[in-house]
């Protein structure tokens, strides 16, 4: 018995019974000290959040097709046909994009014809066999990445999985020995790439190294996408893989518009491309939409006699994509000298001027903001209304759990002329708002609905409402008001609004 007592004492099990022992209880830490709202799944990966914040960026279709006049090369083009009349200048491309207010760009470095615009070890169908010195010295990914970094812009590359030149396409060796190696080569041009673009890749007719046949593949399995994603993310952790990569979806058209109702959740089923403009509220994956559109009136590649769209038309695209919870990738093709034509440069600057003039002077910052309810604050975080105008993307206003209907009211002492309302959800915790409306008052007492013909359903990352109800001629004379009220009528959970702006 004495031995048992000694053992228990050594183990500390008799300590509570000692006259000198003190009972000490460890204070319990609350499970949610900041009273943060729970996530509404699915939610974005951090790299998808950074991608969405890019909002508006350029697409540069340049390559073999620039010199053949085709949109889709067959793959049998002589590399000597790639013969720039001057040294291609990616910096000039990106300077024009920056003037338009874009935050980055994606360069086409390999299209369906398989011609690679960098010295690659995977194929002879590349710039080293070009028809002149300018061509042989071309390295688009090298020069594009360097220029983007110098200009403070994001950058990425378009590389077609479909290769109409490769004799290996459709076989077991193509993905491993050609496509994945090309992606790995491109990843080495910068570990901070924000997007890698994989176009439609089901195959079709082509040269295929002289086979001159039709090859069709099942892109859902052929390209070994899980391994592709893992391989790219090890080198470029913030790089989103568009299309085949399964991290951002095609918005479903090439006309520069997304649905007014646009959910970021969607399912990774290629049949859902037909629903790309809208997404699916109950989708299993965070699969946000990107709208690819042309800023010129002909093809994706440069063609003789083409003209740019007007700045007003480009601004309309901006409202119908960035302003509808999508990103906009706007294509401007370089010409045979490897530069953007002056007319395109001027159109882009004109668009940028419109965005600055119309969506910069935020009247919400001088408004008095009153909300119907504010979530109880936590130890280190509050959810006050002022969070919506503090310029901090990481703060937000919220209601308490269970409250899905709410109002945000902004008023001014003096009359204001307004044309747009912008809303942003805190999407790190999921997309929530399902239905809202906007009301205005001229006397501070009587309220009436405005923009009633606009489908005010989803918000998502960003929603811009033209208050005259139209995007084609959205500016107009505006409305003279002393107050604006946003009424959230339905939400998947308590709404989280990170920004409200009035222009």
Structure description:
It contains 11 helices and 21 strands. The chain has 503 residues and is an alpha/beta fold. The protein has 2 domains: 46-358, Alpha-Beta Barrel (TIM Barrel); 363-502, Jelly Rolls (Sandwich), CATH 2.60.120.260. It has an 8-stranded parallel β-sheet with strand order 7-4-3-2-1-12-11-8, with helices on both faces. A 5-stranded antiparallel β-sheet has the order 13-15-20-17-18, with no helix packed on it. Helix 4 runs parallel beside helix 6 (140-151).
Quick overview:
The chain is an alpha/beta fold. Helices cover 21% and strands 22% of the residues.
Give a quick account of the main beta sheet: strands, pairing sense, barrel closure: 8 strands, parallel
CATH architecture of the largest domain: Alpha-Beta Barrel
Specify the helix fraction band. Answer: 10-25%
Strand content: 15-25%
Mean of residue pLDDT? 93
CA-CA gap between termini = 85 Å
> How many separate helices?
11
- Please give the CATH class of the largest domain: Alpha Beta
Spans of at least 5 consecutive residues with low confidence: 1-25
- Secondary structure category: alpha/beta
Count of β-strands: 21
Sequence of strands across the biggest β-sheet: 7-4-3-2-1-12-11-8
CATH superfamily of the largest domain: Glycosidases
Q: Indicate the radius of gyration in whole angstroms.
A: 27 Å
Could you tell me the CATH topology label of the largest domain: TIM Barrel
Number of domains: 2
Shape: globular
Oligomer: single chain
């Amino acid at each position: 018995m004495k031995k048992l007592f000694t053992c228990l004492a050594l183990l500390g099990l008799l300590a509570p019974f000692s006259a000198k022992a003190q009972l000490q209880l460890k204070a319990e830490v609350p499970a949610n000290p900041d009273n943060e709202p729970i996530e509404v799944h699915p939610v974005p990966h951090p790299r998808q959040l950074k991608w969405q914040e890019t909002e508006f960026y350029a697409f540069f279709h340049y390559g073999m097709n620039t010199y053949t006049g085709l949109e889709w090369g067959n793959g049998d083009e002589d590399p000597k046909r790639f013969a720039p009349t001057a040294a291609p200048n990616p910096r000039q491309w990106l300077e024009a994009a920056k003037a338009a207010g874009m935050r980055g760009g994606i360069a086409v470095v390999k299209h369906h014809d398989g011609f690679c615009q960098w010295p690659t070890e995977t194929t002879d169908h590349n710039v080293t066999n070009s028809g002149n010195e300018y061509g042989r010295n071309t390295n688009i990914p090298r020069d594009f990445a360097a220029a983007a970094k110098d200009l403070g812009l994001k950058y990425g590359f378009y590389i077609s999985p479909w290769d109409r030149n490769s004799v290996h396409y459709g076989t077991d060796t193509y993905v491993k020995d050609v496509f994945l190696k090309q992606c790995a080569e491109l990843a080495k041009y910068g570990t901070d790439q924000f997007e890698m673009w994989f176009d439609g890749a089901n195959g079709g007719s082509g040269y295929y190294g002289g086979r001159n046949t039709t090859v069709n593949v099942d892109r859902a399995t052929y390209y070994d996408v899980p391994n592709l994603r893992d391989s790219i993310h090890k080198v470029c952790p913030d790089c989103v893989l568009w299309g085949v990569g399964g991290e951002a979806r095609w918005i479903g058209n090439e006309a520069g518009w997304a649905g007014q109702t646009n959910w970021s959740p969607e399912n990774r089923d290629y049949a859902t491309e037909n629903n790309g403009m809208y997404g699916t509220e109950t989708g299993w994956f965070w699969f946000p939409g990107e709208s690819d559109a042309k800023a010129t009136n002909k093809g994706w590649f440069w063609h003789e006699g083409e003209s740019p769209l007007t700045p007003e038309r480009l601004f309309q695209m901006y409202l119908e994509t960035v302003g509808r919870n999508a990103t906009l990738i706007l294509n401007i093709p370089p010409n045979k000298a490897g530069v953007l034509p002056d007319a395109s440069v001027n159109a882009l600057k004109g668009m940028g001027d419109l965005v600055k003039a119309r969506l910069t002077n935020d009247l919400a910052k001088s408004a008095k903001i009153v909300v119907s309810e504010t979530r109880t604050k936590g130890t280190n975080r509050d959810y006050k209304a002022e969070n919506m105008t503090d310029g901090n993307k990481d703060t937000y206003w919220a209601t308490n759990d269970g409250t899905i209907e709410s109002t945000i009211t902004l008023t001014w002492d003096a009359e204001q002329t307004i044309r747009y309302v912008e809303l942003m959800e805190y999407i790190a915790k999921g997309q929530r708002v399902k239905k809202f409306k906007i009301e205005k008052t001229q006397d501070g007492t009587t309220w009436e609905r405005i923009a009633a013909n606009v489908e005010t359903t989803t918000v998502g990352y960003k929603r811009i409402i033209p208050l005259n109800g139209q995007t084609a001629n959205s500016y107009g004379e505006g409305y003279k008001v002393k107050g604006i009220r946003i009424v959230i009528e339905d939400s998947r959970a308590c709404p989280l609004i990170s920004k409200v702006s009035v222009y």
